[in-house]
Write a structure and sequence with these properties.
By secondary structure, the chain is α+β, with helices and mostly antiparallel strands. It has two domains: 90 residues, RNA 2'-phosphotransferase, Tpt1/KptA family, N-terminal domain (Arc Repressor Mutant, subunit A, Orthogonal Bundle); 120 residues, ADP-ribosylation fold (Alpha-Beta Barrel), CATH 3.20.170. It has five helices and 13 strands. A four-stranded antiparallel β-sheet has the order 4-9-10-7, with no helix packed on it. It has a four-stranded antiparallel β-sheet with strand order 5-8-12-13, with no helix packed on it. The longest helix is centred in the first third of the chain and has 20 residues. It starts with 19 loop residues before the first helix and ends in a 10-residue tail after the last strand. Its EC number is 2.7.1.160. Belongs to the KptA/TPT1 family. It holds the Pfam family PTS_2-RNA.
Length: 228
């Protein structure tokens, strides 16, 4: 399936048309996080792209600037930022995190005050590999973490999909003490590039929780006793 053409995914598994705003959000996510170069978009080093350039692409032909402004303002995960260009006053848009492209997004170092918990959400199909290798940033620039489980508070705006099946709790103090870097994105996602190999190793896993169909603890294969 061609990821550069989200319209090929517009219909769901039951042949139902996708909500236009959801479709637009997916088109924006691909273009701004991964596809700007392939799509020929003029992206700045800070990740901003002129809205007018986006609207010239075929996958955006049924949308307008008003549609983009609405999707950005109503997006519950605050995935995007709009601004007016300092140079010419044109409206520009950027994804707040999740890039595979190298962009200079403003990130705030974690600092000395650590959140009470740091959690990564994943799926059962990935869990065996994660237990062995750790969490990987893969083709992105950071591993994404949130500070609450979805639905349990106001902090988890983004950073974990609501349909995740496994929550991995990270020993943040230990990871920080070992020299791993952590940052806040503008929409309060906790980000880390991991180690030199782009990994957050299993030794930093405190526990794992099955989220669905019912919540229960999952045994960890890595024993923290190995370090003592």
């Amino acid at each position: 399936m061609d990821r550069s053409n989200p319209s090929s995914r517009r219909r769901g598994s039951h042949g139902k048309k996708q909500d236009p705003d959801v479709h637009l959000s997916k088109c924006l996510s691909y273009a701004l996080r991964h596809g700007a170069v392939n799509l020929g978009l003029p992206m700045g080093t800070d990740g901003f792209v002129p809205v007018s350039s986006l609207l010239l692409l075929p996958q955006f032909r049924t949308f307008s600037q008003v549609d983009i402004e609405r999707v950005v303002s109503c997006n519950d995960k605050q995935r995007f930022t709009l601004r007016y260009s300092y140079a010419d006053g044109a409206l520009e848009i950027r994804a707040n995190q999740g890039h595979s492209l190298q962009v200079e997004v403003e990130l705030t170092p974690l600092g000395e005050e650590l959140p009470n918990q740091a959690i990564h959400g994943t799926y059962f199909r990935h869990w065996p590999s994660i237990q062995q290798r750790g969490l990987s940033r893969m083709n992105r620039t950071h591993i994404h973490l949130c500070t609450e489980l979805p639905g349990e508070g106001q902090e988890c705006i983004s950073g974990m999909r609501r349909d995740c099946e496994v929550a991995i709790f990270i020993d943040l103090p230990k990871a920080v003490a070992d020299g791993l870097l952590f940052f806040w994105s503008s929409n309060r996602v906790l980000l880390t590039p991991g180690n030199a190999d782009g990994l957050l190793l299993p030794k930093y896993f405190l526990r794992a929780l099955q989220l669905r169909p019912q919540r229960q603890m999952i045994p960890l294969e890595y024993s923290r006793d190995k370090e003592t």
